[in-house]
């Protein structure tokens, strides 16, 4: 079972085995955390590595080296764009977290950093996304140290509340 820590910070400055990137389907770098990760990693090197992957479908995850980041790998995952909840958004977002954790396990990672996937320009409702993310991370069977790195205090609060809700209801045990 994964061990989850929730903090506020800059995901590009925290050492870990893997950093998860909330990417777009072209893996081309964009705004928000995706742009910050591309810039901090070294945009040219990361862009060249991403081009070799030929994009990434929503809900899946692909891996590149981390280049100048304090990590070994970047796990790129594409979250769903929110269209009201009737287009399998929850299943796709859950798949992002699950596939990213599977990639971390496959690449022998022990520590993984996640941003809040799909809650920025993709407009996924923060409280719903946080609940789904925390539940998926805590239920993952491998022993990983996972840190949810929140961009701001409202995101931090949403993830802390989701954690409290899940762990107090017995939905998953936290370490």
Q: What kind of sheet is the major sheet?
A: 6 strands, mixed
- How many strand units? 6
- The residue ranges in which pLDDT falls below 50 over 5 or more consecutive positions are none
CATH fold field value = Leucine Aminopeptidase, subunit E, domain 1
Assembly state of the chains shown? single chain
**Named CATH architecture:** 3-Layer(aba) Sandwich
Shape: globular
**Alpha carbon gyration radius:** 15 Å
Tell me the structural class: alpha/beta
Instruction: Provide mean pLDDT, rounded.
Output: 95
% residues in beta strands? 15-25%
Could you describe the 3D structure shown?
The structure is a single chain. With 175 residues, the protein is of the alpha/beta class. The chain has a single domain (3-168), classed as Leucine Aminopeptidase, subunit E, domain 1 (3-Layer(aba) Sandwich). It has helices at 32-41, 43-51, 89-106, 126-139, 153-168; strands spanning 3-8, 18-22, 61-65, 73-77, 111-114, 145-150. It has a six-stranded mixed β-sheet with strand order 1-6-5-2-4-3, sandwiched between helices. A hairpin with a 7-residue loop joins strand 3 and strand 4. Helix 1 (32-41) packs across helix 2 (43-51), helix 3 packs parallel to helix 4 and helix 4 crosses helix 5 (153-168). The longest helix has 18 residues, at 89-106. It comes from Bombilactobacillus mellifer.
